[in-house]
Design a protein that fits this description.
The chain has 167 residues and is mostly helical. The protein has helices at 2-15, 20-45, 55-80, 85-107, 112-132, 134-137. Residues 144-150 and 153-167 have low confidence and may be disordered.
Length: 167
């Protein structure tokens, strides 16, 4: 659960959009965390023959939900801020691949060693993607980014952790 909120915290640090849609997505993320928490006790006592009562299946489905919401948030940043599109597109690709592996945990095999491999691959993409893209994240921003060239007002969710020079 920590990992899911950590991804949202990094997103909000970079591209906090303070609008109705982002508040709705945060609410959906909270519901997903509740769903993940409801699956934790069942992981040790779940019935592997019945996948709907399997705690790992429930946990992984809600985990995919919260990470998919994060991908949607990154898509919104990609759409609103053209200057960060190369970075955000790569983040979305890596996180989407992680979601695919976690979906394999839910619907793939009921064999626990196979599920563990999918869990490991999912985490590899979730944690590996930002580390591989670290050189792009610390690269200096473009020389000038005028507030007047961005759609909306500065309070319209366009706060990003980039240097903004007023023109």
């Amino acid at each position: 659960m920590f990992n899911s909120w950590l991804g949202n915290a990094f997103y909000n640090t970079r591209f906090d959009q303070d609008d109705f849609v982002s508040h709705g997505l945060v609410l959906l993320s909270m519901v997903s965390v509740i769903g993940m928490a409801s699956g934790v006790p069942l992981v040790w006592g779940g019935d592997n023959a019945n996948t709907m009562s399997d705690g790992l299946t429930r946990f992984s489905l809600f985990y995919v939900c919260i990470r998919s919401i994060l991908v949607v948030n990154y898509f919104r940043a990609w759409h609103r801020l053209p200057v960060v599109r190369p970075l955000v597109a790569r983040l979305m690709a890596g996180f989407t691949l992680g979601c695919v592996f976690w979906l394999c945990v839910s619907f793939g095999s009921s064999d626990q060693p196979v599920r563990n491999v999918f869990i490991g691959l999912g985490f590899l993409f979730y944690y590996g993607t930002p580390f591989v893209l670290l050189p792009m994240m610390v690269r200096p921003p473009p020389p000038l980014l005028c507030l007047s060239s961005l759609p909306g007002s500065p309070r319209d969710g366009l706060r990003a952790n980039i240097v903004v020079v007023l023109c």
